[in-house]
Amino acid sequence: MILNRRLFIGTTLAAGAALSAPMVLGQAKPRVVVIGGGAGGATVARYLAKDSAGALDVTLVEANPIYTTCFFSNLYLGGFVEFESLQHGYDKMAGGGVTLINDMATGVDRAAKTVTLAGGQVLPYDRLVLSPGIDFKEGSVPGWSAETHAEIMPHAYKAGPQTQLLKAMVESMPEGGTFAMVAPPNPYRCPPGPYERISMIAHVLKQKNPTSKILILDPKDKYSKQALFEEGWGRHYDGMVEWIGPDFGGNAVEVRPDTMEVVIDGEVQKVDCCNVIPGQMAGKIAQIAGVTDDSGWAPVHPDSMKSKADENVFVLGDSSAQGDMPKSGFAANSQAKVASMTIRAELTGSRAFPAKYTNTCWSLIAPEDGVKVGASYEPTPEKIASVDSFISETGEDAALRKATYEESLGWYAGITADMFG
Amino acid sequence: MRPLPLLVFGLAIATASALAAEEIGDAAQGEAHFKRQCSACHQIGEGAVNRVGPRLNGVFGRRAGALEDYKYSKPMARMGSDGLTWTLETLDAYIENPKVLVSGTRMSYRGLDDPNARADLLAYMREWSDKPRDIPEAEPTALGTDHMVDPTILAIKGDPAYGEYLSSECTTCHQVDGSDQGIPAVTGWPAEDFVVAMHAYREKLRPHPVMQMMAGRLSDDEIAALAAYFETLD
Question: Residues of A numbered 9-38 whose beta carbons fall under 8 angstroms of chain B's beta carbons: which are they?
């Protein structure tokens, strides 16, 4: 083995694992418990089982028997895909050597290395992977609470019934009505997501309710793909979309669900449909497990996704403080592969390689008008860092935008097969 | 202790260190440089405004001469129209000697000779531009591994397990079952065809920014490992 500085700084864990003997446990296989069956959790569970050829005991804990992807849910809002196409079951994964438990994890005892489920079961682990997505910061949008108001002003930022509710509300707006979105502060799941959602809603309203108006109330002075979205909204939805950034009150917003009003820097605006996307933090079980810090997210080692709080715990996807990577399904799936490789190396002595990460986000602006942004990432001693990126450009021709959209369809089929088998 | 910088900037494309992804520099040192060298004319950070020189928040990824509320010199404005964008490479060249990029610039600064000092300064300045976490298209914050020369990568030559790990990056988009919907299939290709295609992406002969980026991070041996792996799938 060639020893050089990189092995000491970046990959000591992996190199160390490759050199050490696999765990000796008598009859029992090493046990990995994964909490969360989304882009991070499903991918890691599937890869651990598939690549270890039965050497590991892999259990996936997921509360929902059917998973609804948040990615592409905007396309359902726009009428481009059916709701059922967003839904995926876990049968192929169960057939692939993963023990699936449909329950909610309610406790983690990291000293005892056990997970407790709502139904009472206690699962021991040698390694734990947390991939629980996001939860909402209470009080992030004054006047709105997830528990009380999600049925009146939906967030639709966890896919499922909330998505269907939002679509129904948009489609039943009165003629000439006002749709408002309260956009989230950084960092949040899916940077271009809210703006793709606006595009999809504009598409629906342009057909069904062309005199209606769309307001975006944004605490951020800039967002991903902004030039592309602005170009697209001007071209396709002329005059319908108004973005109100922090300079004009976008960061001083209060909502009144009972009277269907929003207050923008003191000015009251009546709304007919309101999508509140609040500030976010790591999914609750990560907070409970004690792997998050004051930021609300879980710090991880950049070359392995291992929690900085506990060497037996890994955190993937949205919940992690993942350096330069945006919070996305693509990123979670990418991180899961690094984690799977690291865990297998530690538990079975398999090879571990330098970590690489990638992300690409596609957004649909209008029929056959798709754009994308992406980057590649590598770990530095300090964080997962962006080393190269690309983005669609304004003024691209229709053929390229159509090809970009069709690529996204291919990606969705690819990633869901990669996640669920 | 700061790692030895093995970075050589200049007008040419910066080549990354052969020893893994490197941070741009030491931002704490860079702040000290900024205070000594730049702050007479420029502000950066919380509440920065235009002074003699434009504010430098958000400069990474910005077109030269782009701030609407600052009156640039004609040569600088012209460079902007010509397409000059501030990146790690162009900023490094400019700070080394402004006249290299913008003859007739109003920035009367002799230049910073020491590449280490420039790297530290750029690392500090980078902190005040868009975060890739929030704006994925933002300029890089580190220098990627050069896969052609990284000894760790070269040591894995011909390792089939490595080919399979590399392939996991591909299968998010390219389906292992060979479907061809919107994204071409990569299974069952003769290895040689796969190799020449990937090389063409790496040389940027074939268009497609995602594939150019993906191929750009692969050494010849890595491409060969992938070709061998995908040839076996049908």
Answer: 9-11
